[in-house]
Amino acid sequence: MKLTIIIFCAILLPFSLSAQEVKPNQSSEEIIENYIEEISSNTDKEVDLTTLYEDLTFYLNEPLNLNTATKDELDKFQLLSDFQINSLLQYIKDFGQLYSIYELLNVNGFNEEYVRLILPFVTVQKVDPFLSYDPKKAIKYGRHKVFIRTQRVLQEQQGFSPISDSALAASPNSRYLGNPMHYYVRYNYTYKNKVSWGFTADKDPGEEFFKGTQKRGFDFYSAHLLVKDIGPIRTIVLGDYYAQFGQGLVMWSGYTFGKSSMVTNTRKRAQGLKKYSSADENLFLRGAGITLRYKKFDLTTFASYKKIDANISLVDSITGEAEEVTSLQTSGLHSIPSEIQDRKALGETIIGGNLSFNSTYFRLGMTGLTYSYSAPLIKNPTVYNQYDFSGKQNSNVGIDYQFIIKNVTLFGEAAMSQNGGKAFLNSMLFSLSPQTSMAILHRHYERDYQALYAQTFGENSKIQNEDGMYIGTTILPYSRWRISAYYDIFSFPWLKFETYAPTKGHDYLAEVGFTPNRKLSMYVRYRQKNKPTNIPSTIPQTINGIQDVNTQRIRYHIAYKINKSLELRNRIEWLEYKTDQKTDHGIYFYQDVIYKHQKLPLQIAFRYGIFDTDSYDSRIYAFENDVLYAFSVPAVYYKGNRMYLTVKYSINKNIDIWLRYGETYFANQDIISSGLTQINGNKKSEIKAQIRILF
Fold first, then answer.
1. Which letter does DSSP use for residue 174 in this model?
2. What global pTM score does this model have?
3. Is the Cβ–Cβ distance between 414 and 437 less than 8 Å?
4. 306 in the Ramachandran plot: left (φ > 0), alpha (ψ -120 to 50) or beta?
5. Where do the domains of the chain lie, and which CATH numbers do they carry?
6. What span, in angstroms and rounded, lies between the C-alpha atoms of 445 and 426?
7. pLDDT tens column, 308-362
8. Which of 366, 371, 227 lies closest to 285 in space, CA to CA?
9. Helix (H/G/I), strand (E/B), else coil: 675
């Protein structure tokens, strides 16, 4: 009853405030947070989104000039759809440069809500474009940034609890080797988007620090140097970097996003060679790459070699080197002896390239990739993995295309792996009217297509064994309304993990957004997914059949500004998880308070949330405000409350300090988590501190 009253008041409160006059709009930080939440809401993995955050925050300091921006530059600006990009370029071609940002209201695909959305990131001022790299300017006008961060869980976890020497000797993996602190150091120098160099150092909780197996200090080090636009050299990168080409069927390192309420953003925005400055220990290349441009042709070559983690199954008795591995490890954790044994157990060599032809309305590219390991990857055979890659070497080749015909964009990619397996993706973006855009995407990934470095649109975690058809539409019926919806039907012709039969399913979403005035915005979202899986069995190696797993979610979100300093946000989300055996429900309600002092350089973000779910299956995710370049999208489950407080204070224009405290209380649990992360109690708390220095 109490929760019902709170929710009822939260929904009615904003309308009682609607008569107050407050200047626009969403803050730039909120826009970025919403974008990151959208693209990370469909994964249970902890994802390092540092690079994405950098891409978006870059435009806060260097707003994109819409009057001089090329199609390539608009393409890399994450907040515009293909339809909006094409409409904007056509408008400037027909009517000349924009005189005001609000002239975008005359461009097909834009309304008042969307203009407010991109306002912090763009400009229409007439400024001289930066045409070439000048070392003198780079030295004088470049920006140096230093980040130092530390954090830890306050409660004692099982892996850090005391244990006798004899018990530890009998079970060496029963305790962490290092302390519970997480340390992170990062330095980066940038000059516009033309020059970047820096390094990152990271130590995870439980890893040793300047002792034992980590006498060098941090467990992970990364460094890069990137320069753009020097004569015919479009990009040159040394050290750690990303490589992204086509639609991701052959090569796409780094994180990519799938389905979300941004329903027409189905096309991957490949950026070729790109710096790497995150702390993820796997999704990057280490070596060198270069992109050369001649007229309308771009030629890219790159090479990488690094040691990666793997489960060793056979060791050379003389050299101690791995002779065979069963799987690749991607956690990046090296805190117990078994993880140390797997650390950098396998040498990985990658060589690849891309040749593309680029014109205003047509693009054609070809990507080739070969990779090899110092020892063969031989997976333990199971009923579903018969077509997975095994061996020491593999290669992929793909051809991608893009056509623009008036208001229609056609794009796709076709690829083949060394064993003859194929993958195809084709899509069309178009407009039915000036305020209605649509996306249609078809994919066909054969069960024997093997591409370990591919990431693209799909329901599966791997780019194989999937057929699907996706349709999405965005409608801007009035200046303050937005309607988004998609429907995706997919099938898996072969068996997959925890699904020992061919299956098919569907996923659809509908969202209505409303911005009645400049201080108030809200949306309602409904999502339903059906994805079959095995019926659970208590007897090993026993298959009881396949069951439908239906998940429904309903979310109501509202944000409203009280005055220049105070903003409130509310959300309530309900979830139903249904199988043949059970039906679980979950609900999560939270109140956010965002305060920015008008005289002091002080910002405060506070959240208090209440959750009640029947099980972990009915868990609910929500993005949380965190320190800069740290991301928190935790799941809440069982029954309890979740709160956090983030404080940012600027000592001067060059030094910022963040402090964050987060706590989850479980009303019906006496033990949290399991294994080495187990906490004997009903509360989990974390504290985090960060300093940023600019010079």
1. G
2. 0.86
3. no
4. beta
5. 1-22+560-695 (no CATH), 24-130 (1.10.150), 133-227 (no CATH)
6. 12
7. 999 999 988 888 888 999 999 988 999 999 999 999 999 999 999 999 999 888 9
8. 371
9. helix
